[in-house]
Amino acid sequence: MQDVMDYRRSLERSRLSRMRRDGASVFTMQGREWDLLPGVFAPSDSPSTQIALDLLGLAGPAVTARGSVLEIGCGTGLIAVTSALAGCERVVASDINPVAAENAELNAERHDVAHKVRTVHSDLFDALEPGERFDTIFWSSNYVMAPADYDYEHPHERAYVDAGYTAHRRFLAEAPEWLTPGGSVLLHFSSRGDLVSLLRIAGEVGRALRMLRVLPVQEGEHEVQHMLIEVAPRHRQPFVPGQRTREVPRQGRRG
């Protein structure tokens, strides 16, 4: 399992994905076509976006959703736009890669939900309005840990690895402050990441982690566990390794 956790493997996947694309293109997912700009994480090159949709309950045509959503690391905006199409009234799609924010805007326009989806170029929460609050905050994270001193060679690599889990630490610490009362912070993580470090960081910043769903996915010769984790103040029910529940986030319940 150590080889699938190796950050160099993920950086190679990023490099190969960039090499395959030298111009804008279109891919199909969820029965819809989506714009893809060069330098943006390609959902067609990795199973993680479809897995995130499955974990959230947003896969399929009969999904309904409600409330306001902030998606961190939106990439092409596929999850943000799908949330709006499913019924969410207000969606903010944020990405540290400025081209990804542009890409998400293109897809909101393509699917006629630009009136509900706002895109921002932002390092996590930095570019949000101070008073903004959301019912659901979701991040399909770059769960593979790179060394803390790793120097990113291309913005695309940030979709694959997190140097020293700096972004994960900030997300765990800051995300709950942007919730409406009763809202949920949801993290898509994986056994390709360092769960022990994630748990340690959560404790250090005063957060509890609670497993909502686990989806095993075969990746080559390895079975990788993809997880939907709720981030909450420490007084909430803590995360228990191996615990599984059938709870589905509010935005993904079927009507």
TrEMBL record:
E.C. number(s) listed in UniProt: 2.1.1.297
InterPro entries per the UniProt record, alphabetical: Euk-Arch_PrmC-MTase, SAM-dependent_MTases_sf
Example of a GO biological process term: methylation
Species per Swiss-Prot/TrEMBL record: Kitasatospora paracochleata
Keyword GTP-binding listed: no
Name of protein: Release factor glutamine methyltransferase
One Gene Ontology term of the molecular function aspect: peptide chain release factor N(5)-glutamine methyltransferase activity
Entry superkingdom: Bacteria
Residues annotated as signal peptide: none
Keywords: Methyltransferase, S-adenosyl-L-methionine, Transferase
Pfam families (UniProt xref): PrmA (PF06325)
Top-rank EC class of the record's enzyme: transferase
